[in-house]
Design a protein that fits this description.
This protein has about 30 residues and is mainly α. The protein has one domain. The protein is about 90% helix and about 0% strand. The radius of gyration is 14 Å and the shape is rod-shaped. About 0% of the residues are buried.
């Protein structure tokens, strides 16, 4: 098993989730 790939994927998912959350809050505040 390639643990590095799993780690990178996990980080990518977390970062994407945070970006979408911040984007949602930002647009909702200004909308």
């Amino acid at each position: 098993m390639d643990s590095t790939a799993t780690y990178v994927i996990a980080i990518a998912v977390i970062v994407t989730d945070w970006v979408l959350l911040l984007y949602y809050l930002f647009t909702k505040k200004n909308g």
